[in-house]
């Protein structure tokens, strides 16, 4: 998969602040890779990044994902008073189920909000938010 | 000494709008009124429980309020699970009373949410502009979800799996509004129908404006004590027969199953403690931040099978005159929701058991259930109260 990271737009949204555990995740996103974690003891996969496995408390390692997922559930936000979102209404916020199992939140872009459905296949792309930080977004996958 | 835990006193501050009261004044007014309600001496209070969280300067934190009221306590709890905090407080307070850690607990809540913040809670956004966000919120804040949107995701999934309809959700709001019409203090009192809900503006699909609770000011207080001490007080006690809490997640993107809350765990524990079943309950006070909240709790607590909440609602059980009246004070959907509504569920349950609910009184009300939902369907607390000594 070739890196698909938009770097030439002005980021106007809240900016994720990496910490010691999550920095590799955000740095990978800035390279166009989506990471989750896998437990080195029990094999459990998880998102968001944590210092320990949520199933057994063991150590975790990074796993690079395919960048493909499906819509598990979603909403169309039609009212939000906060900038910059109030200028982007309506927009889709979805819970994306990754091919690898875990789920994450994201916006689905480039779709008509009224056509959104549970089960819609998606692929990831990234938008740079800060130095060494990019945020995953999702679009329809044919 | 009979250490069976009871709720002996209840107090409400002014709602739904109290422009002259700040959060601490709401706590204080509810505190004065709970003393007057049950006649307990201030000097008898030896424990304080509160959730704080209603003021960014933390002036309503439990330790601060214990100082402010000069509660000479030997037991304090500050559990904060969002709107369900007070059901967890009853669980903790009941255990502390049974164990003999304390004898008389003051619980208070107060919020000037509407007068201070306006109606920003639901769709004001969790984060704005280019502020930096760390922790688990870093994985949600960039996407502009709203509080309404979080619950909407659960509603969307429930509709997908079980065919639940907007009309069925709307029936919940219509039923609660009917009770609000009996409460002179309720924020909205004019009758509405399920159709009115469905035709109201969409806020976050599939939740409409009238699927959402009101934003108000308000406060409440409880006195918990032993059955023994309650004999000397002015009001008949509400016995705590069961109290249990559980949590599935905190942030909405971490919800394991969008159609099941932690009520599925906490509910059965509370019923087992109380030795009763859902069919025995005479009235329910459910957190109704949104219509979907109440529908999920109905299923998770076993009032109907999973997925059949919509059908159950349409059968009219929850209506005035039904066999399971819901939110007889008008609920959060129509009466009062200052941000954390859990204490009002307990207060209305006690009013019903005492026979003090006026026109909204449920006949022969012996068992009342309060179920709070905190966060984003995250932490669920269930309390079963009875009129008779267990």
What key phrases describe this protein's structure?
heterodimer; A: 142 residues; mainly beta; 3-stranded antiparallel beta sheet; 1 helix; B: 390 residues; alpha/beta; Peroxisomal Thiolase, Chain A, domain 1; 9-stranded mixed beta sheet; two-stranded antiparallel sheet; 13 helices; 12 strands
- What best-fitting shape of chain B do the alpha-carbon axes yield? globular
Could you please say which CATH topology of chain B applies here?
Answer: Peroxisomal Thiolase, Chain A, domain 1
**Proportion of β residues of chain B?**
15-25%
Low-confidence segments of chain B, given as residue ranges, are: none
Strand content of chain A: 35-45%
Q: Output the helix-strand order of chain B.
A: EHEHEHEHEHHHEEEHEHEHHHHEE
Largest sheet of chain B: 9 strands, mixed
**pLDDT averaged over residues of chain B:** 96
Number of strands of chain A: 10
The biggest sheet of chain A amounts to:
5 strands, mixed, barrel
Provide a descriptive summary of the structure in words:
The complex is a heterodimer of chains A (142) and B (390). Chain A has 142 residues and is mainly β. Chain A contains 1 helix and 10 strands; from the N terminus they run ββαββββββββ. Chain A has one domain. Chain B is α/β, with parallel strands linked by helices and 390 residues long. Chain B has one domain (5-116, 214-386): Peroxisomal Thiolase, Chain A, domain 1, CATH 3.40.47. In chain B, helix 6 packs across helix 10 and helix 9 (263-274) crosses helix 10. The chains are: A mainly beta (142), B alpha/beta (390). The interface between A and B is large, with 39 and 43 residues. Strand 2 (15-16) of chain A pairs parallel with strand 5 of chain B, so a sheet runs across the interface.
């Amino acid at each position: 998969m070739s890196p698909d990271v938009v770097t030439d737009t002005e980021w106007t949204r809240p900016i994720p602040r990496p910490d010691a555990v999550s920095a590799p995740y955000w740095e990978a996103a800035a390279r166009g890779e989506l990471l989750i974690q896998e437990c080195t003891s029990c094999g459990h996969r998880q998102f968001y990044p944590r210092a320990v496995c949520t199933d057994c408390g063991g150590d975790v390692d990074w796993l690079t994902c395919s960048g493909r997922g499906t819509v598990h559930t979603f909403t169309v936000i039609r009212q939000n008073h906060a900038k910059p979102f109030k200028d982007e209404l309506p927009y889709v916020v979805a819970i994306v189920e990754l091919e690898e199992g875990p789920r994450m939140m994201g916006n689905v872009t480039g779709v008509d909000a009224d056509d959104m459905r549970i089960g819609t296949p998606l692929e990831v792309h990234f938008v740079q938010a800060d130095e060494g930080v990019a945020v995953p977004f999702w679009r329809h996958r044919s | 000494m009979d250490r069976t835990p009871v709720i002996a006193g209840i107090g409400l501050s002014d709602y739904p709008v109290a422009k002259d009261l700040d959060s601490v004044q709401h706590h204080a007014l509810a505190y004065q009124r709970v003393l007057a309600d049950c006649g307990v001496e201030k000097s008898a209070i030896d424990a304080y429980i509160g959730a704080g969280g209603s003021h960014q300067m933390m002036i309503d934190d439990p330790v601060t309020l214990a100082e402010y009221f000069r509660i000479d306590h030997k037991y304090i709890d500050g559990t904060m699970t969002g709107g369900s905090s007070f059901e967890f407080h009853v669980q903790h307070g009941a255990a502390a009373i049974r164990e003999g850690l304390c004898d008389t607990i003051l619980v208070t809540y107060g919020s000037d949410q509407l007068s201070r913040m306006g109606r920003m809670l639901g769709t004001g956004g969790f984060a704005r502009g280019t502020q930096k966000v760390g922790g688990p919120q870093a994985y949600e804040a960039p996407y502009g979800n709203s509080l309404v949107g979080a619950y909407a995701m659960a509603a969307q999934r429930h509709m997908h799996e079980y065919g639940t309809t907007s009309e069925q959700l709307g029936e919940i709001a219509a039923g609660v509004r009917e009770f609000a019409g009996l409460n002179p203090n309720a924020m909205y009192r004019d009758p509405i129908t399920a159709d009115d809900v469905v035709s109201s503006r969409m806020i976050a699909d599939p939740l409409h404006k009238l699927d959402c609770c009101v934003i108000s000011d308000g406060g409440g207080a409880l006195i918990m004590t032993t059955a023994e001490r309650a004999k000397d007080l002015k009001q008949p006690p509400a016995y705590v027969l069961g109290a249990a809490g559980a949590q599935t997640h905190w942030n909405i993107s971490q919800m394991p199953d969008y159609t099941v809350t932690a009520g599925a765990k906490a509910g059965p524990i509370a019923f087992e403690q109380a030795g009763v079943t859902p069919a025995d309950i005479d009235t329910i006070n459910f957190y109704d931040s949104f219509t979907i909240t109440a529908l999920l709790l109905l299923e998770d607590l076993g009032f109907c099978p999973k997925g059949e909440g919509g059908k159950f609602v349409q059968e009219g059980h929850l209506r005035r005159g039904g066999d399971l009246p819901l939110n007889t004070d008008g609920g959060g959907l129509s009466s009062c929701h200052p941000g954390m509504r859990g204490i009002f569920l307990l207060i209305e349950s006690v009013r019903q058991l005492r026979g003090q609910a006026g026109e909204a009184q449920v006949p022969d009300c012996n068992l009342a259930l309060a179920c709070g939902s905190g966060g984003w369907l995250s932490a669920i607390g269930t309390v079963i109260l009875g009129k008779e000594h267990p």
